[in-house]
Amino acid sequence: MRYRKLGNTGLIVSEVALGTMQFGGKMNMGNLGQEDTTRMVKVALDKGINFIDTADVYSLGESETLVGNALKGVRDEIVLATKVRLPMSENFNRSGATRVNIMREVDGSLRRLQTDYIDLYQVHGWDSNTPLEETLRTLDDLVRQGKVRYIGFSNFMSWQAATAVMLQERLGLEKYVTAQMHYSLVGRGLEYEFQSFAEYYNIGILAWSPLAGGFLTGKYSRANPAPAGTRFAEAGSFVPFDKEMGYRVVEVLKEVAGQHDASPARVALSWVLGRPAVSSVIVGARKAEQLEDNIRAVDLQLSDDDVRLLDAASDPGVPYPKWMVLQLDTAEDPRSKTLNPERYADGRPWKDLRRTQWSG
Prior knowledge:
This protein is α/β, with parallel strands linked by helices. It folds into 2 domains: 3-314, NADP-dependent oxidoreductase domain (TIM Barrel, Alpha-Beta Barrel), CATH 3.20.20; 317-360, no CATH class. It is 39% helix and 14% strand. The longest helix is centred in the last third of the chain and has 18 residues, at 243-260.
């Protein structure tokens, strides 16, 4: 296993984190019970994973309960993350990033996880019905109380994340250190704006569904779509993407994998680990052999040619205003070429970006 700092903190986490959406039976995302959960957690820890991510809403608390049971005796040896925000019942006050819901749900998570502190507490999504200051002050209170060590967010747009961080700075509140976001070879939307935001504020990206619900394992093709009951069939609509582009990516994944005697999944995970601002990739394997293969991605070194092939196959294009920002800042401003000549060694991006696509 290899390790990285968690965003702009001194906390060190494994490059591969164990996701837990597959634990519990109320979400139909794996349906693993206590015995299987305990086995998977043991495999993860034995292989060097020290970072486990869950959420209160995963199987409506069942995942946290199973994880808590599996961590008896070893909880203090790992970095434990969970989330709050999504509804836990039909009671409308048991949803959202309100003070009342966060204060109630953090106690519920602590109880189910059988711990007196959470290393990383994350807001599961933006709450347009609650004043942002209310959410941020509540999170700050949790850190001051010792119930939470660090805070993060998930599934924010760039302007939402930037607004929150700037408000935290202005009010002197505990700041977000991580962003749990979907990122994969078939889901590169973070590169439009969010990745630059994360780099600027030194916020660590935690990539969820880096295998796009299992699609990037290479098991499926145009002629062999995912059968019912598979992880991709269950989660595929949860991480939508252009399937034709996806099949092209899988073809390149298999080509690169063959050159390294590796699985397509390992190549896909290695690619994500090589992207800017990524602190860890979260894998939700349901079988020990899948988890062990995923973990081996940390030792796979892709060549520049490998990365170029994968980038080209998965290139989503550059939307406005990013292409104009790049045009003005990197293609037309001579200071950029003078200060960072290595970026222009192959002629890119010192050209007119309005007439040609630029990816990288």
